[in-house]
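Fig. S4 source data, part A: sequence.
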Amino acid sequence: MEFYSFNKENGKQITKFNSNFVMSRIIQTDEAAHIGCMYLDKNGLVGYHQAVVPQLLLVLNGEGHVRGENDEYVRVQSGDAVFWAKGEWHETKSETGLTAIVIESDGLNPSAFMKLK
């Protein structure tokens, strides 16, 4: 399990085409990818299971806890990204609610774009 940050402070100011915004790069893949938005309500749980393919969890809002193959939970919040390798056991839960983007693909390499947290 690896932790990354995609918050505004890790982004780059874009001014091309008279633009004025910050872009935090997350991932690029040449492999097929499944991308979804996950909503955990109060006391929501993604049960303990093995990742079928490499998986990247991007917390958009709310907060929760994740764990890998040990019983130690780590708090995650908006701007945090968690990466699990193929076959890695993991779980996500939230007492208050959490919204996240989930990207699953054999071609994930988050360290190419995001800084480790």
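Fig. S4 source data, part B ends here. The mean pLDDT is 93.
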